[in-house]
Design a protein that fits this description.
- This protein has 311 residues and is an all-alpha fold.
- It is built from 14 helices and no strands.
Amino acid sequence: MSVSTPARRLPEPTMSTANLLRLLLLGAIWGTSFMLMRIAAPVFGPILTTFGRAMLAAAALYLYARSRNIDFAWRKNARVYLVIGLFNTAIPFALFAWSALYIPSAYMATMNSLAPIFTGLFGFLLLSDKLTPTRMASFVLGLCGVAVLVRVGPTAVTPQVVFGVLASMAAAVCYGYAATFTRMHASAIPSLATATGSQLFAAIALLPFAAPSMPHAVQAATPLSLIAVAVLGVVCTGLAYALFFHLIATEGASKAITVTFLVPATASVWAWLFLGEPVTLGTVAGIAVVLCATAMALGLVGKWTSALRGV
């Protein structure tokens, strides 16, 4: 049975238990991607790292989608795949890979957490979505958590760090637009087809820019950097995007994109364990604020309050 997008299905007030577990798994997977970019980008460069990631993801997703008899309808959906591929993969991945040269994993992950805010903004501008007081409060709280994480970070503020943060913020803008565009134009396309097609078109778009770096990459490649790109492509993109597009299809763009609220915590832990990036008390405080914002955005606060009242 294919994973398809229900036509005109309205998101539930709160996220289902199964999708909440998918969200948590996705947060853990995407948290590793920033650490892996910090390993791969200095060796291969931002563009080639992004190309390898997209190409491997497209291959993995295509094999899985074919086993599920997914109809891609390439000619009909080419434009949708291209736009999503550019704004949800090619551009933001390249921006993050460039940022990885200058800023820690926690910085990139916290900038990534701005994506729900831009998703809500694009939903308001393009779809006339309502911004409820709770959702707006969760966005503000999320921003506060991001600010705490960035301001107490161990890295000195330099022009490279500032531009790295700005590049990561621009990537978050791309994610917000891509999530809204997916909701607008990909509702009738199976989510696996959207994930596969967008990765393929992203790889095609990146190929002319990545090709000049390939001879250097052959000489500079190390086993660790190759493993990093492979995991980035197959797990952090292939598997993760299959989960992500399923969440968009079943829960809506605004809820699915809140996975980025979870990523700073997992990114900080992975980077601390494997790269030795410090986790300060202020970092933990910022992560806690971000997780509270996630609960509000998902509608879990009201659910927990109701459960406690029933005890």
